[in-house]
Specification:
heterodimer; A: about 450 residues; alpha/beta; Rossmann fold; six-stranded mixed beta sheet; about 10% strand; B: about 350 residues; seven-stranded parallel beta sheet; six-stranded parallel beta sheet; about 20% strand
Chain lengths: ~450, ~350
């Protein structure tokens, strides 16, 4: 309920701003764009109408800069520039008549081109200009002055009356100002008294707060101390973590070096097995027939030559960045981190060594998690790099045969289990038969 | 648990980098082993690791990975695809490519690629998608993200540092010469509405004839020269050269001086995923007049005057009203300070961030 009430004032202000915007838009449409210098003029002259018949008495009713700016608008149809304002203001201050300034503007080249009608100006401007001619001018000026004596006297009386009224008004304003100054002085004195009272109250409150502040300071010290202890503990833990990480890194580096050595030996051994190439070609061809186009395979430790055979058949092997087959140490990481249902096929040609880390049921569950439903698993008892590495580390082969492997696959929920052309080595393919996950 | 923050380029001065660095500091403060991964970094004091090595460190079932998505970067999506655990995608928005058409083919194609990745990122099924604003979150949902996995968290920022910084006194003196100062902060890019801003400023100068100055703070990008030239031409067309001050790549001290010396923050941007300068204005008490586009109305709330339309006279009249009406000005400033304190202060954002991570902490 509060929100609309709070928004209403802002909405009202926005409505008012719309009105302001319309007004300035219209004003701007009627005004030529101002040059930057003109932007700095504090009070721009209001624009006279664009009529071409101008009453000189009306214009002469304005004074000083106001008169000059209005004269320019009326006679030349444009605002006065800063320099012109200063020149004409100096002329007015030197006693030049407004009629002469109006005439100068009207019969300037720019004024002639615009030819504004100003009834009565021509004769009066002519008389003023005649007054500028030596000797004759003095006579003309005297004649004009003589003819104007009655009017001048009337003006003088009117001026006396006007000035008397203005003096009275100014007197009244001065009295009013004095009275307001007196009132303000009283208010000021009252404020000083209130300020003194508040200062006293403030001092008193401060005195009452001092013990509380002391208690807060003491508590803060305890909190700071505790914070320091916690931070120290954090630092200690962080340091411990860094040391452990360094140890892990060192151990991992050592493991990688051993793995590299074993992988090299395994590669040499496998290179000597002439029948292996033939087997791998046959299995790769069999796998291609089962897979849809663009399918990707994740291989677990079957050997670089196997990966090479797959890539030669344009099958993408995950991970893309893998330059070599997955090592023994990496298999657990790969199984844990690979996203669920993320690959179309899996190859594990050398499954026996994996059983050292994972019981068969757990291994098949992990493979099913990664495999797309209806994806294919190729699993074999080929002696690959992992088996050879096991032997080099003094571990014996896990005894496993095709029958046992088939039974395990069936129990784990794989279907369409087929035995591939073996050339003396067991290799099976099986389909992940679970329905798609929801 | 380990936490990894992934960002293509980490710089301390841009909004995305500030967000990532603040998140890293919070996770570190919670005692979580944390690392920042990126392709390159600039001007940051914290240690970073190559993005390619993220999976060696984190990405396991109990780990947290936060990706700051503000540009096309296929590598990040591949890394996220191979991660498990709690994956967070923080979406900072990508400018629609049409803004760069006829201005920069590089930017245009980069934005096209970046926006195409939104649908790919949505298909990853990350555990949490965070938008800087509800505007950003809506874009994610429109591209296929599950609304139940979507949240909104405003970006962390460096406003406290700006508040604590000492203002550039020389600049402050130069700007406080009696002119009405209009401020715009934002990189010089075609979605930021500089041309409309100049129209609005010109309308003010023509209508009110008071000394006025437009201060434009923001990095000028040489790859967007066509746009920068168009701005210069528009300024010249209105004869406003002497009224416009550009500050290219301002320091914190200069930025603070600009905010302190300005009478109004005016922005006519067409596309903002959040708009950090709005909350900088709120915190530093500069009243705001803004074009209500994209995420701007949501960030601004009731702390400023926002217009749906771009009529320059409306903005000019709004500024004049602000200058003349002390009650309005004070009311907007108070609303701004309150909004910043309640919605965007670092403490509030920190708590919201921790709440979002509750399932994994």
């Amino acid at each position: 309920m509060n929100k609309p009430q709070a928004e209403n004032p802002l909405q009202r202000i926005k409505d008012a701003i719309r009105v302001d915007a319309d007004a300035i838009r219209q004003r701007a449409a009627a005004t030529p764009a101002a040059a930057p210098e003109r932007v700095l003029v504090a009070n721009p002259a209001p624009h006279a109408s664009t009529r071409h018949d101008v009453a000189i008495n009306e214009l002469c009713g304005f004074h000083s800069v106001d008169f000059i700016e209005r004269a320019f608008i009326a006679v030349l149809g444009r605002p006065a520039d800063e320099n012109s304002v200063q020149v004409h203001l100096a002329q007015l201050n030197a006693g030049r008549s407004k009629l002469e300034i109006l005439g100068d503007l009207r019969w300037s080249p720019e004024g002639r081109a615009r030819a504004v009608k100003m009834p009565g100006l021509y004769l009066r401007y002519l008389l003023i200009k005649l007054g500028r001619i030596p000797v004759i001018g003095r006579l003309v000026e005297s004649a004009v002055a003589l003819a104007s004596v009655a009017a001048i006297a009337r003006h003088q009386r009117a001026a006396d009356s006007f000035h008397f009224a203005r003096v009275e008004a100014v007197d009244g304003q001065v009295r009013d100002l004095l009275s307001r100054i007196e009132t303000l002085a009283e208010a000021n004195a009252q404020l000083r008294r209130e300020k003194d009272a508040l200062s006293a109250e403030l001092r008193e409150t401060r005195q009452r707060l001092d013990p509380m502040q002391a208690a807060i300071d003491a508590t803060s010290a305890v909190v700071d101390d505790s914070r320091q202890r916690v931070l120290s503990l954090n630092h200690w833990l962080a340091s411990l973590r860094h040391h452990l990480a360094a140890l892990e890194l060192s151990e991992a580096a050592h493991g990688r070096a051993v793995d590299a050595t074993h992988a090299d030996i395994a590669r040499r051994m496998l290179d000597q097995d002439a029948a292996r190439g033939e087997r791998l070609d046959a299995w790769a061809d069999a796998l291609i027939r089962l897979l849809p186009a663009q399918a990707g395979i994740l291989d677990l430790g079957s050997g670089n030559d196997w990966i090479g055979k797959l890539r030669a058949r344009n099958i993408s092997v995950t991970p893309d960045l893998a330059r070599s087959t997955v090592s023994h140490a990496e298999i657990a990481d790969v199984l844990t981190r690979t996203a669920t249902d993320s690959v179309s096929a899996l190859s594990v040609l050398d499954v026996a060594p994996l059983l050292r880390q994972f019981p068969m049921a757990a291994l098949l569950d992990a493979l099913k998690r990664i495999l797309h439903p209806q994806g294919w698993l190729m699993i074999g008892l080929e002696q690959g790099p992992l088996s050879l590495a096991d032997q080099l580390q003094g571990r014996s082969d896990v005894p496993l045969n095709a029958e046992l492997l088939t039974m395990a696959l069936r129990t784990a929920g794989f279907a369409d289990i087929q035995t591939l052309a073996s050339l003396g080595v067991t290799c099976l393919v099986a389909r992940h038969a679970d329905p798609p996950r929801k | 648990m380990k936490a990894a923050i992934l960002i293509p380029v980490l710089t301390s001065k841009d909004a995305v980098g500030a967000d990532a660095i603040a998140m890293a500091a919070i996770l570190d403060g919670l005692g979580i082993q944390m690392r920042l991964f990126c392709d390159s970094s600039e001007g940051v004091t914290c240690r970073t690791w190559p993005a390619d090595r993220l999976l060696d460190f984190a990405g396991g079932p109990s780990d947290l990975v936060i990706y700051h998505y503000s540009t096309g970067w296929p590598k990040a999506l591949e890394i996220l695809r191979r991660c498990r655990g709690f994956r967070v995608l923080k979406y900072h928005n990508i400018t629609p490519p049409e803004f760069f058409r006829h201005i920069s083919p590089d930017y245009e194609s980069g934005c096209i690629r970046g926006r195409k990745e939104i649908a790919v990122a949505a298909a990853l099924g990350c555990e949490l998608y965070l938008g800087d604003s509800a505007f950003n979150s809506r874009e994610l949902v429109e591209n296929g993200v599950d609304p139940a996995r979507t949240g909104t968290l405003a970006p962390f920022h460096r406003i406290d540092e700006i508040v604590r910084a000492e203002a550039d006194i020389e600049l402050l003196n130069a700007l406080t010469d009696g002119s009405r100062n209009f401020l715009m902060v934002g990189r010089v890019a075609p979605n930021k509405g500089h041309l409309d801003l100049i129209e609005a400023f010109s309308a003010y100068v023509r209508a009110y004839r008071e000394p006025a100055r437009l201060i434009m703070v923001g990095k000028i990008d040489p790859r967007l020269d066509r746009y920068t030239d168009a701005i210069r031409e528009r300024i010249a067309a209105h004869q406003l050269e002497r009224h416009v001050s550009w500050i290219n790549g301002a320091s914190e001290a200069q930025l603070k001086a600009a905010y302190l010396a300005s009478h109004v923050f005016m922005i006519l941007s067409d596309h903002e995923g959040f708009c950090v300068p709005l909350i900088e204005s709120m915190a530093l008490s500069t009243p705001i007049i803004a074009h209500a586009s994209s995420a701007v109305p949501e960030t601004l709330g009731d702390a400023g005057i926002a217009w749906e339309e771009k009529d320059p006279w409306l903005y000019a009249a709004s500024a004049a009203r602000l200058f003349a009406d002390d009650d309005l000005r004070n009311d907007l400033l108070e609303r701004g300070r309150r909004r910043y304190r309640d919605e965007y202060s670092v403490d509030v954002l920190r708590q919201r961030f921790i709440d979002f991570l509750a399932p994994v902490l």
